[in-house]
Amino acid sequence: MPENETLSVLLSSDLRDRLDALAASSNRPRTELVTEAIDHYLAYQAWKLDRVREGIEAADRGDLHAHDQLFAELQDRYSASTAEKKPG
User: Fold this and answer.
1) Between the N and C ends of the chain, which has fewer C-beta atoms within 10 Å?
2) pTM above the 0.85 mark?
3) For residue range 28-38, what is the model confidence (pLDDT) as tens digits?
4) Integer CA distances (angstroms), 40 to 3, 34, 60, in order
């Protein structure tokens, strides 16, 4: 089991109050919520950096797409998804 360490963090009173409210409503300790939040944040940042690196590598290989082509594809996707949501 990994060794736990103490980390002190200064929180605004508003953030602390929100954390306390969530802890009370979910019946979970603040420490557990903070640890989970940090874990999710770090995982998301690692995922995002991987996507940026992939994009840079693709650009370095010359694997690029024209702006007009991407815009048209996004417009088609948006149009298709909003058409599906309309009652008909």
Assistant:
1) N
2) no
3) 999 999 999 99
4) 20, 10, 30
